[in-house]
């Protein structure tokens, strides 16, 4: 009890410069005091949270621009939502600019960990989001979840246990996801229907699927392009898929290292990708999901993909035949270990449509297979020579705001 009172006193002193409420403070009052401070904050304010673990029954929200919420470290300042009674997300960030969340942990959110919608200049740094009971369909869907945002930086963070994606950035532009660890999620990192993303320096392991770059139908943003995925270690992503049934993510095969679904202008390079039991890398059209697109404005084919200078090791030896049954990975594996790089072989039929351009070069001794999904494997081929080409390297993601700061690799 004394330690709890000390922690709450520290918070009140930081927020209000007074210990008047300390003697009868509780987790509930902690949350109320913190939310009041978030409401009253002015641009440039830094709200410092001391070390301690607090149980919060209701979510927090930020709707003020230019503020920083900072803890004493992700193993020291812990906001637990295990007993959350209201709301889905643990922390929501509205359509504001210049918010930074850093050096704290969020555990056992009822829904998503941190969700930001419509924001600009968002930084999530050294944040841990974890569902402490391990992989479970009952866990929240997303750990770090910016959507419809611009200029997003997610770095040095850790997410474990998300039943959809640990780090998800959707319908956004100008994105950097670097130096994070994602583990025991259905998908480690997902870039969806977004433009200009750099994903690098991440440790991606023990998820169902490691890194996905995807373009989905029925969303306001109708394209996914200009994504660079490089210098990551993507290994041992063999956890059984525990996403709630019905979603596309629930169809991701266990043992997927890297996957592109219908995205354009993707460059995968200088990664170590190893021991992912279904396939180390897959490039597929939306047809691989086995679901109809039913969206006339949607392009279901990946185009202008370059895979180069990666190191592939192991994997492809125990493919998941339950998920993405359209691919029928189990039947293909009857011929032996699956290739490091798989392509579903589905390309536009219309002569005026842009042709699928898949280039594969300089990946040491990596092997390849066109599994000919549309032809039901009649033209299955392991010839890589049709894809022995190079594309123009994509530019790095950078941004500069009026304060003269920048995000770059």
Q: Which range does the strand content fall in?
A: 35-45%
Mean pLDDT: 89
Structural class: mainly beta
Question: Overall 3D geometry?
Answer: elongated
Account of the protein in words:
With 409 residues, the chain is mainly beta. The chain has a domain at 194-409. It has 3 helices and 32 strands. The strands form 3 sheets. It has a 19-stranded parallel beta sheet that branches. α1 runs parallel beside α2 (27-40). It starts with a helix and ends with a strand.
Task: Give the helix/strand layout.
Layout lengths: L1 H15 L10 H14 L5 E3 L3 E4 L4 E3 L5 E3 L6 E4 L10 E3 L6 E8 L6 E4 L2 E11 L11 E6 L2 E6 L2 E3 L4 E6 L2 E6 L2 E3 L3 E6 L2 E6 L2 E3 L3 E6 L10 E6 L2 E3 L20 E6 L2 E6 L2 E3 L4 E6 L18 E6 L2 E3 L15 H5 L7 E3 L14 E4 L6 E3 L28 E2 L5 E2 L2
Parallel strand pairs: 1-4, 2-5, 3-6, 4-7, 5-7, 6-8, 7-9, 8-10, 9-11, 9-12, 10-13, 11-14, 12-15, 13-16, 14-17, 15-18, 16-19, 17-20, 18-21, 19-22, 20-23, 21-24, 22-25, 23-26, 24-27, 25-28, 26-29, 28-30
Antiparallel strand pairs: 31-32
Question: What descriptors fit this protein?
Answer:
mainly beta; disordered N terminus; 19-stranded parallel sheet; single chain; 409 residues
Care to give the gist of this entry?
With 409 residues, this protein is mostly beta strands. 8% of the residues lie in helices and 36% in strands. Helix 1 packs parallel to helix 2 (27-40).
